[in-house]
Amino acid sequence: MSGIVAQNTLDNTGLIKSPSGGGGAWNFISKQTASADSTISFTSGIDSTYKEYIFYFVNIHPEDYARFQFNLSTDGGSSYNVTKTSTHFEAHNPEGGVAAPNLLYVAALDLAEGTGVQALSETVGNDEAEDCLSGHLRLFQPSSTTFVKPFMSLVNHESAETTWGAYVAGYGNTTSAIDAIQFSMSSGNIDSGDIFLHGLTT
To answer: Do residues 45 and 29 lie in contact, with contact meaning Cβ atoms separated by under 8 Å?
Structure first.
């Protein structure tokens, strides 16, 4: 995420302005705001217009102590069951250094030709109003009918007075076009937060 922020500037509408040094630009497509929703789905705006799409998560607060996750669709959101293979790394460090920080691969949160949801985080705290998750998910050339659909995510969240950084990468193993995506929590609703969708002009 740091590489993206270094080249682009967010304004107060969520639109990412063009890089001052030239090249491509992130173009705002849509925004959804959660309000005790079981799922947040984007069923439009993901097509052949752009080769890369990015979803920004801002202050996602869960109803329950739960993981933030997603799944993909090839039929406009009628079903979310695209086969995926993925990898999941995370690092964490507690407030005040009361316990040792750690960096680890989380095999329980990866997929190997699985059609279920892909976790983007460890469990996000909900015991305090300030608990939240922010980050992004990048999806590459979802409209291709030749190649698989790579994705990469980087998020940070607070849980149990600890900062958690999670990196997830993988691909949707399909040559069908991806045209919808759905976000949810592993338990309970998405209590609040914003998700922005942008496409990259190259």
So the answer is: yes
Structural domain contains residue 70: yes
Q: Which domain holds residue 147?
A: 33-201
pTM (whole model) above 0.85: yes
pLDDT in tens, the chain (202 residues): 334 444 444 544 444 454 444 567 999 999 999 999 999 999 999 999 999 999 999 999 999 999 999 999 999 999 999 999 999 999 999 988 767 889 999 999 999 999 999 999 999 999 888 899 999 999 999 999 999 999 999 999 998 889 999 999 999 999 999 999 999 999 999 999 999 999 999 8
Neighbours of 201 (CB within 10 A): 14
| 36 Ramachandran zone, left/alpha/beta (phi>0; psi -120 to 50) | left
Contact indicator for 131, 159 with CB cutoff of 8 Å: yes
Total domains present in the chain = 1
Buried b (16+ CB within 10 A) or exposed e, 151-165: bbbbbbbbbeebebb
